[in-house]
Amino acid sequence: MSLRDAFTAQLKTAMIAKDAPRVSTLRMITSKLKDVDIAARPTGVDKVPDDAIIAMLRGMAKSRRESVALYQQGNRPELVAKEEAEIAVIESFLPQQLDDSAMDAAVVAAIAELGATGIKEMGKVMAVLRAKHGAALDMGKAGPLVKAKLGG
Length: 152
Prior knowledge:
mainly alpha; Hypothetical Protein Yqey, Chain: A, domain1; Arc Repressor Mutant, subunit A; globular
């Protein structure tokens, strides 16, 4: 089942269950997806593929995590709870991420495969990681790890 189908099915289920917060979050996701689809039209793509949808979801979750930090600083626990609930719904559609030890092993393996020795080869290592692990690897966390391993 594609992510688009999953959004629709989950939205119907949430509407039947009268789960207003989940309905709201799912509608927000589908709205953002329509915006992404519209933005991709000039390139000749009517509907973006699942990997672009995953990137969109990661961006949505990241912005909400930033909001949570700001709301915590502002002592707004009700808004923190709302954002965290949205994060939980968004992340339910994301593939399982590699844990820290698996990510470390993947980085070491990619460096060994390329025989990379310096920071100038970081882009090649990142490309290998993206090709092998795709959506299961958080590139935001992998980048600094690769840089550290290459002596940057």
